[in-house]
Amino acid sequence: MSQRFRENLVRVIAIQVVTLVVLWLLQQRYAG
Amino acid sequence: MHWINWVIVAVYLVWVVGDGLKRAKGATNIEAYFLANRSLPWWAVGLSVVATPLKEITLIGTTGQGATDGLKFVQFYFGLPIAMVILGVTLVPFLHGAKVYTAYEYLERRFDARTRSLTSLLFLLSRGMSAGAIISAPAVVLSAIFGWPLTWCVALIGVPTVVYTVLGGVQAVTWADVKQMFVIVGAVLAMVTVLVMRMPVPLDDAFAIAGAAGRMQVFDFSFSLTNQYTFWSGIIGGTFLMLSYFGTDQSQVQRYLTAKSVDEARSSLLMSAYWKIPLQAMILLLGVLVFLYYTFSPAPLYYNPAHQQAMAAASPGTLDSLTARYGVVTTARADAARAAAAARATGDAAATAAALDAYRAQEREAGAVRAVALEAAGKVTGQPTRDVNYIIPRFVIDHLPLGFAGVFLAAVLAAAMSSIAAELNSLSTATVVDFYQRRFKTDGDDAHYLAVSKWATALWGAFACVVATYAASLGSLIEVVNRFGSFFYGSILGVFLLAMIPRARALGAFVGLIAGMATVGLISWQVPSIAFLWHNVTGAVTVVTVGMLFSLMAPTPESARAA
Fold it and tell me: pLDDT of B41-50, one tens digit each?
């Protein structure tokens, strides 16, 4: 695996985690 | 619609088709026509991988789902990043390294010709039909909104797409996808911005109201095989579906076969993994914002103008009384929503809870009136009246500032065209490479195959337009398309998984494929309540299990020689 693939992989994992956390926080705050 | 909106749509069409025609100069042989001589940069391929499955249904149906069901549909995509990473390290090196034109060509090298032919045929069947459905979905909606004949709407979407795909090949398809992604994302962001700016209460209060109406529920952790969208069906079933779609469906595989190298192909898949969940969440959020807009503003009783017209003609008294009742209820709902926002501003928890309860009651009442109205329209028209696909187009035409309707329509056309173009291009590739070149004319020269490929693309385009013209209104089309594919997808994935197991044999692959499809067919017939995402898991597991059993029974090359 190349350096670029590894870097992209880390970015992908990071953005998914951030998105899921944001969605979770939205649900926790607003879902009644 | 204002003429400025039409100018925007016309400029978009000329831009995409004109650029596609320019790309035609480079398509001088079938490797250039189908694979762009494996020369495209990873970011362009990546945007194409994102754009191709982003069907126009995403802009019309998914936003409508956001308005009616909230954010929970995003769970459907939870498996996508996992699938992309798995594919990047497993199947992509096999397929790109094998220098094949189609994914099914690889199966002949690994197994035999009949497995290649069967998988390719299944692809042609499912994608041929879905190309028609992809044109039909927006055509039906545009026809109802603007009152045009359906044939015109099919032609508006189908003809420009067929022209640039036939002449420009995969180069035109990919570079059109890049432009289309910018149009789609730009349109979504512009609409979200306008809706946020027009919100009559602070966004924090508005989301609380959406939450009270059940629109902010994202995660469902229940392990239910019959619930369509849960966290687990998204993670497990969704991973299998995405592995099948991006790993074995020629319309996707062909995208990354055009990349310069295995590494660039992998990176292009990761770009899709990067964007998909945030983009889908944004699209669903757009639907939630439209729901909020109609909470505070007068909402139409019928989003589909055809329902309104049918009721006005057949039962004007009922229509008038339902419209008046709905007006009263929605006004009370808007007042209750404003009261809830005001209660939140005071910080009084008990008053806020009571105000939100009062709002929920009004929301239920409004839903009940609409249900009665839709049932009445159903009796008059004799057709299903699910109108989720009409919510956003109606909102765009009636309420967005000048120019936005044109941008939205261009985005819907962009999403439809990017999906159809990729499908036509891949249908033509599978037809020519897996059947014509393989079975009917093995000794043609490049010019002959190029001409046949262009004819095949044009014929598939004509077929898709005919299917679209005659396809009836199919309700939530995104599910229909996915459900149809799920009958084959998991099983075809199973064959590719077998291909990576050294002990697997051709007999096992073929019998396993038949067994996988039969099992999925049997389950969906006998237990129709099972959510379709699970069919992908069932199909893949059955193929691998049955395939390995038959492979272990088949003689190895050594034992055959000894015998």
Answer: 888 888 888 8
